Amino acid sequence: MRDVCVIGLGLLGGSLLRAAATAGRAVWGAASGDDAAAARAAGFDATTDTTRALRRAAESDALVVLAVPLPAVDEVLTLVARHAPECLLTDVTSVKTPVLTSVRELAGRVRYAGGHPMAGTTDSGWAAGDGTLFDGASWALCVEDDTDLTAWRETAVLALDVGATVCPLTATEHDDTVARISHLPHLFAEVLAAVAARNGPLAGALAAGSFRDSTRVAATRPELVQAMTEGNRAALLPVLDEALGALGAARGSLASTGGLAATINAGHAGVTSLQRHTLNDRTAIHIDLNAADARTALAALGHQGGRVTVVDDATVTAEVPGEQDFS
Amino acid sequence: MRDVCVIGLGLLGGSLLRAAATAGRAVWGAASGDDAAAARAAGFDATTDTTRALRRAAESDALVVLAVPLPAVDEVLTLVARHAPECLLTDVTSVKTPVLTSVRELAGRVRYAGGHPMAGTTDSGWAAGDGTLFDGASWALCVEDDTDLTAWRETAVLALDVGATVCPLTATEHDDTVARISHLPHLFAEVLAAVAARNGPLAGALAAGSFRDSTRVAATRPELVQAMTEGNRAALLPVLDEALGALGAARGSLASTGGLAATINAGHAGVTSLQRHTLNDRTAIHIDLNAADARTALAALGHQGGRVTVVDDATVTAEVPGEQDFS
Question: Which of A231, A244, B45, B302 is deepest in the core (most CB within 10 A)?
C-alpha cells in the first residue's frame, strides 16, 4: 500500500489522515499550527513544516493529497514543484477546473488526478474530522485526455480503502454538477435563512423540521462557503441564471394567473428522476486501465452515473445505472 | 374533555383523530371514501356523511376541526353553516387569511379560531397519519380583534393534549411567516431539484446528504404544494420578491466583483439569529383569558416568539424568549 502525505489537516484532510491510517497506510501530514498540534496530540505524525513533509513524500514516492482551502492551493503547489516535483498528486478541493489550471501552471511535472470527496459537515478543523467520514460517500475523481492514470489509480484505491465509491468525470463536468447540487443549494439556503430571519422570533417559533433541512448548510462557516462558491464562479454563474429564470417564471405566473403548477411539477419530476438514478438496478462493467481508450471509457462511465467499486491491478470494476425505470 | 369532530381524515386530520382518541377524547370524523374506510378499519368512528358528523357535533357542542385541503374548505363551511351553525370551529389549513375570510362570509355565526399545526411529512392520506405527529410541534393558533376566546381556548387545550405547544398570532402574521419558513422553501426546493436533474445521472451519483436535505420537500405531492403556495399568494408574492432581489444581488456581485460575502454573511447571521430564538432562555408569563386585553396580550406574546405550554381554566401559561444573547 502506497504511503500517503496529507497537506492540510482540517475536516477533510484530518478525516483522510485518520481513515488512511485505519486502512493500514503509513501516513503523515502538514498543517497550520492548531491543526498540526491537535493531530500530534491524537498520535499522528504531523508537522507545520510543509517542505519537510513534501520531501519525505518525494523520497518514498508517496501519494500527496492537497487538503487546503482553495485560496491556499497555489502557495502549496509552488512548494510541491520545488520539493516533490514529480510526485503523485491529488486534492480534495471543491472545484476542479481552477485547481487543474493551477497544477498545469505551477507544477507541470507532477502526476496529478483531481479529486473531491462528496462528504462533509457544517463544522471545520481537525477536531471536526472523523475517520468514518467517507464511508459510503461518492468521491469524484477527474479524468481528462492527459490525466496520469497512475495518479488516478492510486487515488481511486485510497478512496476505496476509506469506504467511498469513485465517480470518474471531467473537471468541467464536475464543476457544473457541484454548482447544481452543492453551490446553488448553499446560496439558496443563505437567502432562505436571511428572508426568514427578517420577521424575527415568529419564524423561529414556527419553523419545523423541513425549514431546518432547507437551511442547514447556512450554518457552515461563511469563509468556507465563499471559497467554494466564488472559486466555482465560471460554472456557478450560468447555473444561478437558470435558477433565477425558473424563479422569475414562477413569480410571473403567481402574479398573473396565480398558478405554480409548472414550477412544482418540474421540481417533482426532477427529484423523482434523481431518486431513480440512485435507486435503480445496476450493471457491473470492467475497464482496463492499460487500454488506449481507458480515459474515454472512465469519463463515459461517470457521465452515465457509474461508480467504481473495485480497482484490482489495472482493472476497474464499476456499477452503471440500469435502464429499468421505477417511476 | 370536549368531544372532537374531524372533517377530513388525511395526514393531519387522521393524525389528530388518533391523537385525540389517545388523549381520552370522544372523537369521530368524516372523509371521502378511501380515508373513511381506512379509519373505520382501524377501529374509528368515521363516515363519508359529513352532514351526519356535523349534526352530531352541534348536538354535543363538540369542537369541529376542518382538516380538508384549502380548495375544499368553502364547500365544507357551507355544510357547517347549515348543520352546525354555532359550533366551536377550528381548522388545520396551511393559510389563515383566506380561511378566515371564508368563515366570515359563509359561516358567520360559528365560534372560530384558525389553527395550523407545523407538522407533516411528504406523504399524505389516512395511512400516512400518526398519532404522535404533533409531539413537540408548534401549533399556530390565530387571534384577531374579534376571535371567540372559547374557540381559541378549546383548540389550544386540544393542541396541548396531543403534545404540541401553541403560538398565538394574527392570520396576517401567520401567512407572512409561513411564506418565509415553508412556502418559499418549497419553491426553492422545486427549483433546486429541477436544475440539478438537468445534468442527469451525474447529479444523482454525486449528490450528498446536504443536497437531499435541500430538496426533500420537493417529493411532496405536487397538488398539496400547489394548494399551499397558490392559496397563500398574497403573502407569498412579496416574500418571493425579497428572495429574488437577494438572489439577483448575489448574481450581480458574482458576475462583477466575483464576491458573495454579503449574501453568505446575511444567511449565516439569519440562521444564527433563528437558532438563538430557539435556544435561548425562556421566561414564564401568564395571561388571563377573561381580561379585556386578552386578545392583544396573546398576539403580543406570539409576536415575541412566545409559546403557550399550559391552559388552565381561563389562565394561559406561556414561555417567552429571554433577552439573553448567545451569539
Answer: B302
- pLDDT tens for A154-212 read 999 999 999 999 999 999 999 999 999 999 999 999 999 999 999 888 998 898 888 99
pLDDT at res. A183: 96
End-to-end CA distance of chain B: 43
DSSP character for B70?
G
| List of residues 6+ apart from B292 with CB closer than 8 A | none
Contact between chains at A260 and B210 (C-beta distance less than 8 A): no
Query: Are A177 and B208 inside 8 Å of each other by CB?
Result: no
Give the angle subtended at the CA of A119 by the CAs of A212 and A146, to the nearest 5°: 140
Q: Give the span between the Cα atoms of A126 and A38, in whole angstroms.
A: 7
Q: Does B306 touch chain A (CB under 8 A)?
A: yes
Residue A285, beta-bridge partner list: A318
Of B194, B203, B304, the CB nearest to A267: B194
Q: How far is CA A53 from the centre of its chain?
A: 24
Residues contacting residue A22 through CB under 8 Å, at least 6 positions apart: A131, A162
pLDDT per position as a tens digit, B240-295: 999 999 999 999 999 999 999 999 999 999 999 888 766 566 788 999 999 999 99
Q: How many CA atoms lie within 13 A of B199 on its CB side?
A: 26
CB contact under 8 A, A258 and B305: no
Which phi-psi region, left, alpha or beta, contains residue A316 (left: φ > 0; alpha: ψ -120 to 50)?
Answer: beta
Place of cell 374531524: B6
Contacts of B208 in chain A (CB under 8 A): 118-120, 137-138, 181-182
pLDDT tens digits along A12-63: 999 999 999 999 999 999 999 899 999 999 999 999 999 999 999 999 999 9
